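Tokens in:
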């Protein structure tokens, strides 16, 4: 049954709280392997769920699931090496929370019922909160409370939006299951006024979790204070789960003939997020916060591309996949930098190429990829989005989009050069364990491989996902 894929990590996560740390680390990796195998099985055979009214195997859900599974497997390998040298209190709680986090994120990808999706996204908040508070410092406590409070307000607004969808059904005299699959089929009969209101609340609600501006305030603090494996999951995976809720609602809007309304709002929030990220990246002083604002920028790119429609949606999905791979690699690499230099500040780093050469390769490769340089996939995604914007006649929007991307690159490049080549300081090489750089290499190589060769099944899955909102070539 489909549901076993999120039940299994929930069970192992609960077990991890009560076993010694010597057993917790193998359990983390073994769960990652099992989850990846189950995800591949689901991808190939696409079995029917045990509760079809609540869960469904959809193209966008499968795409998110396979990314989650691959990332968690590689992050779990990195975590085993990271825990050997990092000061992590209550390691069993950390590992158990990571496994529960995997369970809840997996549940999001398979949820079809509106309220089940809401519950699953709220559960990701509860599961990930202990990860942010791992170091138990004053800053991590502040970041944790901000994360919980801001995301809770956001998820409450998403709940209100979900309720408004039921009101749109009542006013339109629609009798259908309260699932995205069911609503898409009867979308034209839903009351348009209440459906528009529902989308606005859902976008603001799930957009808070996705990190869209101005609801992004929790993200830089949470990502910078969480241990690097948790930061990689928060940025590379959690943000995608929130986007999935928006994307599914956008599908209903498109089926109801209200795609122009939801697309315009997505474009506005997308550009606002890129502009805000560009502003903070220019004068950033901490490298993990730098990566966090880069995530806000990329979520803005994805929202903007989805709103553009056509080829832009295809570009947005490409950016979604490649951002997950590259940004997870960068956050893992930031963990090595923090352990090597003992500081979050960019000014305390430098000469990474000599001090930690293997980490430098991962960091600089990640910088090139996340900046949208070829041959990495974000370049293709952004190119498709810009092309779609010009095709649709959105010349001003496209101009602002290109300009802000240039500003972000200038700011990020300045900091990356400082970390990689600048500074005198201590340049003696430091020990770099294979488990702490090979996962990053694997993530970057996967991103590169997908630029030159996309399996037919993956391409078809992307095409099926984007065509539901009018996307494609």
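Residues out:
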């Amino acid at each position: 049954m489909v549901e076993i894929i999120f039940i299994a990590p929930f069970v192992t996560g609960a077990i991890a709280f009560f076993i010694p740390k010597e057993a917790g680390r193998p359990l983390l990796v073994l769960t990652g392997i099992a989850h990846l195998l189950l995800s591949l099985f689901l991808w190939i055979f696409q079995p029917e769920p045990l509760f079809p009214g609540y869960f469904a195997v959809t193209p966008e859900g499968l795409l998110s699931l396979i990314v989650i599974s691959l990332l968690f497997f590689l992050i779990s390998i990195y975590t085993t090496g990271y825990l050997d040298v990092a000061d992590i209190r209550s390691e069993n709680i950390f590992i158990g929370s990571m496994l529960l986090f995997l369970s809840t994120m997996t549940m999001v990808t398979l949820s079809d019922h509106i309220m089940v999706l809401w519950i699953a996204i709220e559960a990701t908040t509860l599961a990930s909160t202990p990860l942010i508070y791992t170091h138990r410092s004053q800053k991590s406590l502040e970041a944790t409370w901000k994360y919980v409070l801001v995301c809770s307000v956001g998820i409450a607004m998403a709940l209100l939006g979900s309720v408004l969808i039921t009101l749109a059904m009542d006013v339109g005299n629609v009798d259908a299951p309260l699932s995205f699959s069911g609503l898409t089929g009867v979308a034209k009969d839903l009351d348009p006024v209440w459906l528009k209101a529902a989308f606005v609340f859902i976008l603001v609600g799930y957009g808070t979790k996705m990190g869209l501006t101005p609801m992004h305030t929790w993200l830089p603090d949470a990502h910078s204070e969480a241990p690097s494996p948790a930061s990689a999951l928060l940025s590379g995976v959690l943000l995608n789960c929130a986007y999935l809720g928006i994307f599914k609602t956008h599908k209903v809007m498109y089926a109801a003939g209200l795609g122009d309304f939801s697309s315009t709002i997505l474009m506005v929030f997308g550009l606002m997020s890129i502009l805000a990220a560009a502003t903070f990246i220019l004068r950033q002083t901490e490298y993990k916060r730098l990566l966090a604002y880069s995530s806000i920028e990329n979520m803005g790119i994805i929202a903007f591309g989805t709103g553009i429609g056509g080829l832009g949606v295809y570009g947005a999905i490409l950016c979604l996949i490649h951002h997950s791979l590259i940004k997870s690699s960068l956050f893992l690499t930031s963990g090595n930098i923090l352990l090597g230099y003992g500081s979050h500040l960019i000014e305390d780093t430098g000469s990474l190429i000599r001090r930690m050469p293997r980490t430098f390769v991962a960091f600089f490769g990640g910088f090139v990829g996340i900046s949208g340089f070829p041959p990495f996939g974000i370049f293709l995604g952004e190119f498709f989005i810009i092309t779609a914007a010009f095709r649709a006649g959105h010349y001003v929007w496209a101009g602002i989009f290109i300009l802000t991307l240039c500003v972000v690159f200038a700011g990020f490049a300045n900091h990356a050069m400082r970390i990689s080549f600048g500074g005198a300081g201590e340049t003696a090489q430091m020990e770099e364990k294979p488990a702490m750089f090979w996962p990053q290499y694997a993530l970057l190589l996967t991103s590169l491989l997908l630029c030159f060769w996309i399996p037919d099944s993956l391409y078809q899955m992307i095409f099926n996902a984007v065509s539901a909102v009018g996307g494609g070539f």
